[in-house]
Each structure stands twice: as C-alpha cells, then as structure tokens.
Specification:
Layout lengths: L1 H10 L9 E7 L1 H4 L6 H4 L1 H9 L3 E7 L17 H7 L5 E5 L7 H4 L5 H13 L6 E5 L14 H19 L2 E3 L1 H5 L14 H16 L17 E5 L2 E8 L2 E6 L10 E4 L8 H8 L3 E5 L8 H16 L6 E6 L2 H11 L4 E7 L11 H7 L19 H5 L5 E6 L11 H10 L4 E6 L13 H10 L7
Parallel strand pairs: 1-2, 1-3, 3-4, 4-5, 9-10, 9-11, 11-12, 12-13, 13-14
Antiparallel strand pairs: 6-7, 7-8, 8-10
C-alpha cells in the first residue's frame, strides 16, 4: 500500500484547482502498473499524464487484485485508494474493474456485480465536481487456469454486465478487450500489459479525453415516427417503421463534430466490432431493412427517403456505407446513384455480381424478369457500375477471405478491384489468408476503424 501511495503522490501535482482538469483512474493491477519496471512512469495513467501535459493532473488509484464486487476476495470498496479517489476532486473518472471478478472465488457473487457497479458510479457522480465517468471493459486474459482470471467469464458474464450498466447510467464505455484480443504478445504473463500495451492504452484514453464532443445533439428528438428504445451493446437504439420498412438508429453517448454515421446495409448486429468502436468515437449507426430487394430500384427508393430523413434530422451529408456479403450489392447500387452522399465504403466478403446470386426466384421477382437470361442486359450489379461508383471519388475498403466458399473472390472483389484501379479509383483490399466466408470483420476492428476515421476526417485535436 505504501508503494501505491507513492505512485499516487508522484502523479498528483500541486496546481490550483481551477487551472487543471483532474483525471482519476481507478482499477486493479493493470491500472496500478503491475509487472512493469517502473509503474510510476510506465503505467497507463502515468503515460496518459505525459500525453495530456500540464493542463491535466492524472491520478492513479489502482490496487492490485481488487474487485468491483463488495463480496470479492479483495474488494475495491474496502481500500484506502477508493477513499482517496473520492477525495481527488475528479473532472473525469475512468473505472477499470472486472477482471478479478472473473476468478472462481468471486464468480459466485456475479449476480451482485451490476448493483455494486451502479453504486460505485453514483458515489462518484454525486461529488461536487460532477465528473464525466467512463467505463473500461476488461482486457482479455490468456490464462489456462480456469480458477483464475478467465476470459470466457469476462466475455460472457462481465462485459455484458458492464455494457448494461453503461446503458442504464447513460455512460461511455470503452472496449479495451477488442484492442488487446489479437495482442497476446503485449501480455508476457498473459494477464498484465507490457510497456507497449500500457502505451496503447494511454493513447486510447488520451483520444477519449481530447476528442471534441457535441453533447447537445440528440437525433432521437428529430425522429417523427413512434419508436421503441432498446440497447445495442450499451448504446440507445431507436427502432421504428419508416416508408414501410423496419429501421434502426443507434446514437453514441456524444456525437463527434459533423455528426458522421455508418449505414449498415444488411445483417444487423452481425460481427458488430467496427460499429461498436465507431459508436465509442461519436458516430451514429443506422439501418433500413430492404431485404431481399437486392439493390433494385425499389430498395434505392426506400434508402433515398431514409437518407433524406436522417440528413434533415442532423446527420452529416455523407454516409459511411457498410456491406457484408450481399450487403455489397445494396451499398454499391445506392452509391452509384448517390455518389455525392458517400464518405467511404467498407465492404466485407462482398457479393459484387448478382448473376452469382443463388435464388433465381427472388432475382426474377426483384427485377421483373420473365427469364434469367434477360438479367445481363440490365447491368444491375456493382461490377457493371464501376464508372458511376468511381465518380464519387470516395475511398473503398474491402476485406476479402481468400478461401471464401460462398462469394468467389476472383469473380467479385478481385475483379471489382481491377476495374476500379483501371479508372484510377481509390480501393484498398485487405486479404485474409486461410479464411472462408465467415467470420466477417476482425476481432480487433482497428484497421477498419482507422480507415473510416481517416476517410471522414475525424481527428483527436483539441
């Protein structure tokens, strides 16, 4: 405990109260900086202090082995660090407690985890400083001893509870689990991040602090249709009927400047990693169900109406279009008609040529055909509309499974890429060697998110 206090004191600089933004980090050994050579300088709170500079005071109140559970084997509630955190006059509080709650000795009390989390949040929310409170999802554990910190318990029992608490309390939640899920090398003991891992954590929290936020914008107040509200991984989702179609709009806890948005074309909620990561960063996620119209004129008409409604409600002029599998048909056929309304495109194992669509009955119905032989003359697929698509000048990202058994890459993504490049269009294809059609996306969606942030000119400058 003396070592903890020395770390705390080293990070708390005596600066007049009104001159700085005070950031309080509470958590367990990862917050404290266990296994690092010098926690006082290498823990993520210490590195966050360096990144933010003199206008901020970052305090580290991490306690090794601590739990959120009051009945945990080492409850954070009973520590001196908790009392000091309450007295730190915070403007921002990061809470990272949950990994130790997944231990076998603590799992028997998990039905009380949400209640205890709510209580801890309220203990900070009622402080005179009324801090901004941000919840962190626990990072993965790569241990094989199932009696210790256990990743399956973290994924299936802890993370859903944290998301529910964030939804109930209208608080931000940052997905640290996805950020580490493909970086076991950053965790030499399979639990604690090394210096590279704490550096990346500090950078992520730095972005959370400095990102300009529009907290006043509320698209739900602009939706004229009756809607019901549900939780989309901890974010409010409005579900309603519009133009005769089922629609959804998920709003972030705050909106980034310009109100950028992602338009999911198909398979709502499937492999949502990129959607969740962009919600964290202030994007909206929307959906208008036009299945199974396969990007025909009727589908485009419904989407045109939906776009107009959303744009009038305050979302940005240009949408990020996201299409998985046959969703590629939907996004590109709409983009070919609306090139000035597209910020960028993310397509994933995308069907680009409808002549390979297996359901001939639906195809004939959607495009009013008597014979399938008449389909080729319609030029109704994205592969036929490359000049119109390239005209938009927006960048395109394709994820492509090299062993895709459902959508042949040679006849779809690779042929489309060739045609786009021949017309000097901007397209990046990320190959996934050894992968089949499923799964889509990545467990860590960083490449997708970084592409979209760059395309939409979202940065983290104050």
């Amino acid at each position: 405990m003396k070592l903890i206090l020395s770390v705390i004191l080293s990070l708390c600089i005596a600066i007049p109260v009104n001159a700085v933004t005070r950031i309080t980090c509470i958590g367990a050994s990862i917050t404290y900086g266990a296994t690092l050579n010098d926690p006082a300088t290498q823990s993520y709170p210490a590195q966050l202090q360096k990144l933010l500079g003199k206008n901020y005071v970052v305090s580290n109140f991490g306690v090794s082995s601590a739990t959120m559970l009051r009945k945990g084997d080492l409850s954070y509630w009973n520590t001196q660090a908790y009392q000091q955190a309450l007295q730190s006059r915070p403007d921002v509080v990061f809470i990272d407690l949950g990994g130790n709650d997944s231990k076998l000795i603590n799992r028997v009390h998990l039905n009380e985890y949400e209640r205890d989390y709510h209580d801890m949040i309220r203990s900070f929310a009622q402080l005179p400083s009324h801090p901004r409170i941000v919840l962190l999802l626990p990072i993965p554990a790569f241990l094989t001893d199932t009696s210790q910190i256990n990743d399956k318990v973290i994924v299936n029992d802890i993370i859903p509870r944290v998301r529910q608490v964030a939804y109930d309390e209208h608080l931000e939640v940052i997905d640290m689990h996805s950020m580490f899920v493909n970086h076991q090398a950053w965790m030499p003991d399979n639990i604690h991040p090394d210096l590279q891992g704490t550096t990346m954590t500090a950078k992520r929290l730095h972005d959370v602090i400095v990102q300009p936020r529009d907290t006043a914008f509320d698209i739900f107040s602009k939706i004229k249709q009756p809607f019901k509200t549900s939780s989309f991984y901890g974010y409010p989702c409005a579900e309603f009927a519009f133009d005769g179609r089922d629609c959804k709009v998920v709003k972030p806890k705050w909106s980034v400047k310009g109100h950028p948005w992602v338009w999911r074309a198909r398979f709502w909620g499937h492999e949502p990693q990129a959607d969740i990561a962009l919600l964290e960063r202030g994007f909206h996620i929307v959906y208008c169900d036009v299945a199974e119209l396969l990007g025909n004129d009727e589908a485009i008409g419904h989407w045109n109406s939906f776009y107009k409604m959303l744009n009038n409600a305050g979302l940005g002029k240009k949408a990020v279009l996201e299409g998985m599998s046959r969703g590629g048909i939907y996004i590109y056929n709409w983009a070919a008609v609306n090139p000035d309304k597209v910020a960028c495109i993310y397509a994933d194992n995308a069907l680009m040529d409808l002549k390979y669509w297996p359901d001939s009955v639906v195809l004939k119905q959607d495009f009013h055909l008597k014979n399938l032989g008449d389909f080729a003359a319609l030029k109704a697929s994205p592969i036929d509309k490359v000049p119109q698509i390239v005209k938009g000048g927006y960048p395109m990202l394709h994820l492509m499974a090299e062993q895709d058994e459902a959508v042949d890459p040679e006849k779809n993504t690779l042929l489309f890429e060739q045609k786009v490049k021949a017309l000097n269009g901007s397209i990046l294809v990320i190959h996934k060697p050894g992968f089949k059609h499923h799964p889509h996306s990545f467990p860590n969606p960083a490449p997708i998110v970084e592409f979209i942030l760059k395309a939409t000119c979202v940065d983290y400058l104050e």
